[in-house]
Structure formats: C-alpha cells, structure tokens
Amino acid sequence: MPVLLVRKRAGVVGETQRTCHLVPVPDDDSTPVALTAYCGELIHRGEAELLAQPSGMPCVGCLFRVPAPRGEELSGDW
User: Fold this and answer.
1) How far is the C-alpha of 29 from the C-alpha of 59, rounded, in Å?
2) Quick check: pTM over 0.85?
C-alpha cells in the first residue's frame, strides 16, 4: 500500500513534534482538507510538508500501525 511521508511545518508545531508520519495515499485525485496518519494524528492542509524520503525522527505510532506490504510475509528467521 503506498504511503506519504509527511511532517508538520516548522512554526506549526515545536521542533520536537516534527516527526515523520506515515499517511495512506488518498483513494481519489481530490486534495483532502486533512490527512490522517496511521498513528491517528490529523494533519490539515497547509500545515505540513510532503517528504521525498524520511527526514528527522520517525513517528513511532505510525511505524507500529502501518500495514505490512501486500503479498509479502515476514519470515521468522532474521
């Protein structure tokens, strides 16, 4: 499932809250008023930046809740 990497802009929140969230790509082509990260964080239009790659601290809540890739099973052997 494709995801967006999003973090709130500087000045919207303090620097320690500018974590990199994982957000499911919206189903349609319209621009939503807000995005909801996997952790539940609501991110309104204009208060965030889209990232081309991870930057800064990752959101631990998003990492725990993002779905595993489809068609791939995790092996018990690492």
Assistant:
1) 26
2) no
